[in-house]
Known about the structure:
mainly beta
Amino acid sequence: MPKSRRGRILAAGAMSVLAMALVAPLASAALTGSDGPAPTPLPDRVTDTSQLPSGWRQSDDRVVTYDGDGTGLHVLVADAAHAYKWRTAATLSEPGIDTDQWIGQSCVTASGDRAVVVYAPRQAVNDQLGFQQGAFAAVVDLADGTVTKLPQLVSLAYFNPGCGDGEQAVLSRPQGEGTQLLTVDARQGSVTRQQTVPGQLTSAVPFGTGIAAATGDSVVSVDRQGDIRTLARTAGAPFRLVPDADSGLAYQVPAAGKKVEVRRVTDAGSDRLLGSGALGALAVHGTGGRVFVTGKGAQEDTAGSVVPKSWPKGWKVLDVPASSEVSTTGVLALTSVGNGAEAAGGKTVTVGPATDTAEPVGIDALAPGTGATFDFRVKPESPQQGEGAEQSPALSISGEAPSDGLHTNSVQSPSDAMRLDSVDDGPAHTTTDPDRACAVTRNDPELQALQPSPDMVEWATDLAVQGRLDVRRRSGWNGTDLSSYTPQGLFPPVALKGGGRVPAQIMLGVLTQESNLVQATSRASAGESGNFIQGGYYGNAGSVHTVDWSAVDCGYGIGQVTSGMARSDTTYTAEQQKAITVDYAANIAASVQILQDKWNQLYAQGILANGGDPQYLENWWFALWAYNSGFNQPDASDAAAPWGLGWFNNPANGLYPPDRKMFLSSGYDDSRTPNLWSYPERVLGWAAYSQQKTDPTTGTTGPAFTVGTWPTGNAPDAEPPHDAFCDPAANACDTSKPHKVDGSSQPEGPCQRDDFKCWWHQPSTWTDCTATCGTEVLTYEATDPEPKATSTHPASCTSSLPSNALIVDDVPNTVKFRVGSTNPCAGERNWTSRGTLSFTFGSAEQNGATVYPSKIDFHQLGSGFGGHFWFTHTRVPTYTDSVVTGTWTPDRSLKGWARVMVHLPDHEANTDQATYRVDLGDGTVVEKTISQDTGGKNTWVSLGSYEFHGTPSVSLSSDTADGTGDDSIAWDALAFEPLPGKPSDAVTASPSPQK
Length: 995
């Protein structure tokens, strides 16, 4: 049985950032679905300028925010002088990553002219090294949209990046047992200094001529030589450092009684308490030396706190929610930002597949000075889309993986990874990957994954946790060659030690966090088939130019099952591997089995939460911890060696803000920044609040699945304190005192070990579960039938062409079009394919081998003509390793006139530069360029009529003069319609230059 759903024990290797995503509803009322009449469209600016402060036309106030979807992370800007009219400064993404949501954060330099941005695919938060060293960084010019991507990968932690009172910023990432600090000159768009210092430093910002940061229970400064000096020692872990304009540094620190203090320390070490409030009720923000304290309670409940007039110069208290995003001068605060489809993922899963169109963003704002509120609606439209989508220099195009080791080594040996399926299966012309390292290939039309609806996922989960997921899959299910099976016949449930079973909401939370409740690519709608959703199948770390079979992460499907899914791994049979790939129910059965195994593993070691009754959702905290980041077994030869659950997912880890509340408990804006919470926190958040689904027919929005129930009606009541798993005797973790190693330059820190192996292996009781903990709510009983989903993109089954037309389909006649056990084209198909579509894939030489990067962005979907088509995205001709060429050839020669018809699918085909090259059979080639955008219809389009003199062929390549990786180009069926004579649409054969 697999050791974990990812097969990732941290000591065994790093983890890929390329898994998949999830989705949730929106906090902002601006874009929330409703059963009522359509609301009045919201403006993209302030329309009633009388609500703005006087002098707004001359103001230099600027507000900058961000929001992500499947097209990228949008950096949005609004200026007071233009009535806060919103515009898109840039949209940041990477061409080799197929995700449904980009996440990140930004800071603005003192001039207000530039933003330093950290961005990553949402799935990076599920992997330790993806989180810590897998985010991209860029400098964005807020005036003209120029994007300068930086050549380093950095941390996705909430405090990254950190801006100061000038044009510099600091980026950070863990480096071994230390922290690497990167000083960025935003004017130059370059990293000007790199320093690695010992210990775990957080909240790093430029300060004076060096850097200030938090470490353990101290605020420290780091000079240019890397020497560390303590500025202040505190009673807790400092966070949110903000430099002011007078050589001071604002910061927050947790205090006793669930309080938080706002303090100021100077370079000379003078430390002063300025105010306090409830933890989470206030926060410090700042730009360009200005410091803003948001929230209520900054002047209450603390002896010696001061009145507003005594706040330092350049500081201002704003009566707005603590989590607000503040403009550069504090005139405007954003209280909610979102597109209604985040939650670590792109579109609500029932709306349809991912698209290349940005989601509109709803923004709620408040003017602290007047109390006026504003609601905006912004459609992201980047002025320099090409720059934001260009590959980051942090990704090597030479075929070498990044030096930081961002991948799980799932392959046992290079020879295993590189073997072909057979001697005849060369990868240059087959759509599959015979040279792959993972068990099941992409782009096999006989191995497509069926996309489930949320109802189908909840049904399978409810039955699986009851041990009753025994629905019969008949032979050939979904067009595969699988024999008949049942999901839990292939993956039998495992009895829990101590009795009981997995609560449904725990498993639903896992599936939400892992994949957005999808089994197939996010480009497939519910009821449509396509390639499986997968992790780092190509080992490319996001590069569209790199294939590294030795660095793959073989995560498959809705549960991202990884262990047992490498080609060289024999944990599963070939039948089990295929079922995990194509069948969401089988994947869920395997995922439940893995989670049960994690529970038993921890139970055997006595690592139990609140007594270990599995009916309570919070008692799965440790199993979730292990499910995500593995479990470090005791060392039989060294009883003193650390063992247990790793430091990364410990809530006390400084990677997560100390004042965070339960994930999603404050609203769905939390879904914009899932990196602020550990994995178990996110899963319990989904279990309590669900993601949302939108009915594609009615447009109404509601929960994707039934949430758990809590006796107090308030899920946060049962959450463990952030320091619950921090005990000096248990895991060398102590939040009450700093740690210093004699004779070492390591600074103080809460983890008392230099190697951060503060691993947890003790039972813990933090609540009375009978009074506070959540329990499951089942929607489906074991006897309920499997729900069905109707695709929003039904196949075109019947040919409308004349009966003598020679149709050349994109797949052979032997491929069976099935949706589950149903043939939607039964009795409707009136044609047979009379030829072949063959491909040539762009290649590159990397690491001494020929690889095919063009397959990274090559996809299939079970729709279009006959229930299948292929597509990729256009690239300029110089990207030879990314170009795909498909050629249709009939099975006979043609003499005389014939019309060439091409079938275009109703989605994933929108380039207006599709150039077809028609070979007339005698070597003469004629070009015809058309738009593939049909306005959402399956339709046949004429390429004109030609006089043929032999066996013809028609070719279509993905290279276009305007190819940026944004426009899709498709290969579906093509037909030759013989004609009795020369027609009116005859094309004169003016030979085109040969490619």
